[in-house]
Amino acid sequence: xxxxxxxxxxxxxxxxxxxxxxxxxxxxxxxxxxxxxxxxxxxxxxxxxxxxxxxxxxxxxxxxxxxxxxxxxxxxxxxxxxxxxxxxxxxxxxxxxxxxxxxxxxxxxxxxxxxxxxxxxxxxxxxxxxxxxxxxxxxxxxxx
Length: 144
Prior knowledge:
Elements: H1 3-33, H2 47-84, H3 90-101, H4 106-113, H5 117-143
C-alpha cells in the first residue's frame, strides 16, 4: 500500500467512528423514549422490555466496535508520527502532523504555515514522496 493511501485510512476510520457514535446516540434516544416501565422484580417482561434489552445489547456491541476503531486510529496515528520523523523538513513534518493527526483542512494548514494552499499541497505531496522512497528502502532492506 502506498503511503498516501495508508495515511488516508485516518479519515476513513474517523468517519466510521462518527457513524458508530451516531447509531449509538440514536439507539439511546429510542431507548429513553420507550422506557416507560417501572422497575422491580414484579414487573412482567413485556415486548417493550425485551426491545429495551435488545437495544442495550446493540449499544454495547456498537460501543465495542467504536472502541476497536479508536484503538486502530490511535495505532495508525502513532505510525504516522514515527514515519514523519524521517522527513528532513520541519515544515513537511508539521504539514503531515496537521493533516493526519490534527485532521486540519488545507486552508487551515495554509494559515498556520503562512503559505498558500497550493504550496502546502506541493509540500505535502513532496513529503509523501519522500516517505514513499524511505518506506520502499526499508522494505527492500528487510527483504534482503
